[in-house]
Amino acid sequence: MKLSLRQIEAFRAVMQTNSMTAAAGILNISQPAVTRLIKDMEATLALTLFRRAGTRISATREATRLLGEVERMFNGLEHIEQVARSIRRFPQGHLNLAAMPIISMGYLPKVVRHFLDDHPDVSLSVHSDSSVNIVDLVAREQFDLGICSVPAVHPNLRYEMLDRVEAVCIMPVGHPLAENAVIEPRNLDGADFVLLGQSSLLRQQVRNVLDAEGVTINVRVEALYSTTACGFVEQGVGVSIVDPFVVSGLTRPAVTVRPFRPTIPYEFALIYPPRLAEDHLAIALGAVLREEMKRDFAQGDPTPADSTLTS
């Protein structure tokens, strides 16, 4: 016997509802039919997926492990359906973009809006992921364009470096540090601080700079993303050093921004898959991103030195 899509659908429905009867309602079939599909799936895979105790069932560890692969498959099917709908609605094209959260969470929407203004018959999908995963996804031609930190060179990808940008120091409006035109490590000694999370490269870079100067900060909150850190700063929890993208938009929270020295640079690249390296939509979006970055980060500063961003 071969595994069937209907068996997988039944398995997913049972895992979602923890009930054969409820799964039958989702699939619009009878409960015995669901039970048969699950039994056939277990026989095909030679795995016990559910333990039975009367009318109650519970998923096994094997079923839980299998669910991740099933969800990935269904996400792929849903993506195909989405692309098909886009092809019908937007005959001029559909662009699949993968970008780091540092860009996609706040800065990218403005770029995409300007791109779509110039391409009204085009639709776009955005996927947020780590740089390592983005390189892999683009190399496998699952995305038309990737925006990521500069990775090790991949032989099957084309790279275009973006202009370098620099981390900035943010603080609540009216904070005493706002009197400084530029923030240096010594200015932060003893300051209440919102530090980025353990997985953030910027966190380690900030720590290295402060440790080299013998500066001690009072970490009040740790936050994984700069966007989250910005929210805590707005509420007066402390100051922070974040990526410049989070403070570049007009809709950012009310915080005061200052350049930080010594500079902590960000280097990014546009990456294109080999088969789609000449895709005109991907190239056009890359060009819009470049222009927006030149406008927003001229001379490495996201805003004038005395700027205060308001919602």
Could you please describe the fold and organization of this structure?
The chain is an alpha+beta fold and 311 residues long. The protein folds into three domains: 5-72, Winged helix-like DNA-binding domain superfamily/Winged helix DNA-binding domain (Arc Repressor Mutant, subunit A, Orthogonal Bundle), CATH 1.10.10.10; 90-163 and 267-300, 3-Layer(aba) Sandwich (D-Maltodextrin-Binding Protein, domain 2); 165-266, D-Maltodextrin-Binding Protein, domain 2, CATH 3.40.190. The protein is built from ten helices and 15 strands. The chain has helices at 5-17, 20-27, 31-45, 61-89, 101-104, 108-118, 131-139, 201-212, 226-234, 280-296; strands at residues 50-53, 56-59, 93-99, 122-128, 145-149, 158-161, 165-166, 168-172, 192-196, 218-223, 240-242, 255-259, 265-266, 268-272, 308-309. The strands form five sheets. Strands 4-3-5-14-6 form a five-stranded mixed sheet, sandwiched between helices. Strands 11-8-12-15 form a four-stranded antiparallel sheet, covered by helices on one side. Helix 8 (201-212) links the parallel strand 9 (192-196) and strand 10. Helix 1 crosses helix 2 (20-27), helix 1 (5-17) crosses helix 3 and helix 1 crosses helix 4. The longest helix has 29 residues, at 61-89. It is globular and about 75 Å long. 31% of the residues are buried.
